[in-house]
Model the fold of this input.
Amino acid sequence: LIARIRRQGRGGRGVLKGIGDDCAVLRIPPGHEALVTTDFSLEGVHFRREWHPPESVGHRCLARGLSDIAAMGGDPIAVFLSLALPSGLPQSWVDRFIKGLTDLAKSFRVTLAGGDTAQSPDGVLADVVVLGSAPRGKAILRSGARPGDKIYVTGSLGGSAATLKQLMDGRKPSSRCHDRHFFPQPRIEVGQLLRRRRLASAMIDLSDGLSTDLAHICKESSVGAEMWANVIPRATIGNAPVALEFGLHGGEDYELLFATRPKETVPRQLGRVAVTEVGRVIRGRGMFLLGENGPTVLQAQGWEHFRKAR
Amino acid sequence: LIARIRRQGRGGRGVLKGIGDDCAVLRIPPGHEALVTTDFSLEGVHFRREWHPPESVGHRCLARGLSDIAAMGGDPIAVFLSLALPSGLPQSWVDRFIKGLTDLAKSFRVTLAGGDTAQSPDGVLADVVVLGSAPRGKAILRSGARPGDKIYVTGSLGGSAATLKQLMDGRKPSSRCHDRHFFPQPRIEVGQLLRRRRLASAMIDLSDGLSTDLAHICKESSVGAEMWANVIPRATIGNAPVALEFGLHGGEDYELLFATRPKETVPRQLGRVAVTEVGRVIRGRGMFLLGENGPTVLQAQGWEHFRKAR
Done:
């Protein structure tokens, strides 16, 4: 496994020494700060081997970290994989898992620069660390939103949760509509464009669901928000948009949620990804949903809880 | 847990944004490269709850990563903890684990800057990432040893393995002699002194055991080695030195093994830690042990294998 990863890990931009020493040695571009994110992905919690092809599991493990880098407006440099495998796991599963992870890494010119392996007592456990960088003082934090700021999301929401619902109902998803769940695309380019154009006052990636991630922005920025139900861009599965609750509370879409100052003009597309205005930052700490029947309180429904309840 | 870690993680040198955003934001000193190391510690493999107090488990999880930074001559900056806990684990266990980890972190002025938590299917699983730095081009690799170089180790060896043997035999270690196993001290200061004085041509930390870690140096440097059995510094437990085989093959001492050019003079102590000359780098790829009965081949006995066999 180490030898296999080592072959994959050669010659990356910014990686001076990858696997094969006590530490990886990496170059952070001059004038940049380092960004670090870690995500634990556990079989039975974040994926199931009977639902997710190994390539999808590898892809998703890394997509979580890349999406965190995107949410800072950062540039990913290297990834580290700590992998605990149960005895009896077929080698082909591991090979396909690594392929899913390294294919995504390559598409962003990110090197697999190290990691660790161990035997797992039960189930596959993967801890993925992504190291990236952003120009000094320019990383986009969760804490910069101010009352009056406009709120935007990229892409469409709820597609991943709607697919998960189908899996739980015992239906086998087959169409490309489900790629958002199996092979989500981290919005690295959008994040970088927002940073370079100084458009985002605060940003987060939508991993836990719109309501939960919006609550993080509100907490860190000490603000509230009102969201407009009828404009929230919902994913389409088959020919129908998913239910609003998937768009509001479903996690793992890995789109970006960001705020901009009222005076800024945000393009309707950034790097070919749709950008939709969905609400306003307000004073106080409350979150409200403005729908056909007037405003209601928008509860942050944790994705873990939501996922279990379905 | 997150809140607890967050309280611990404030205000560190080099940590601009710790827990509470999509990524941690860290400052790498100008002219420095980043060092990254990851180590998975699993209950039943790397520790047992019936043998190791929670403070020791937390300490050991982090000591592994700090020791990797030491082996590059690096300066640790921040640590990231991904922790999967089984249901039913007492809160006091988690508190004491975190205390063991953060006490060690504080002693090296390292900030706990992020991580992830999850529920474990079985047993405590901790993946620890340490980020550090070293001046550009000055990190000490495994690959720089040349035939004729002298080989040194810090401190004394085999103490951790001898303690593990006692635990396996059902004896309860009590004296301070066993601290090398329960609370190993990463040799950060020694590593930095060796880097600053340009004394080490190659270096590795002794995590897997002298024979195995020496083999890593030999492989990466394309050299062989001869070691002198009678001078290998063995740990003392009670009043007796541990058996030679513990010194040669026992892991988890977290001392440093390094090579220096023949012309260099190495002090007998560095930062109050003893430094002992134990062999020579030779041509070829063989490893030999010179003892009372003449030279024998020194086999790299992997620590995992060694540990299971005892």
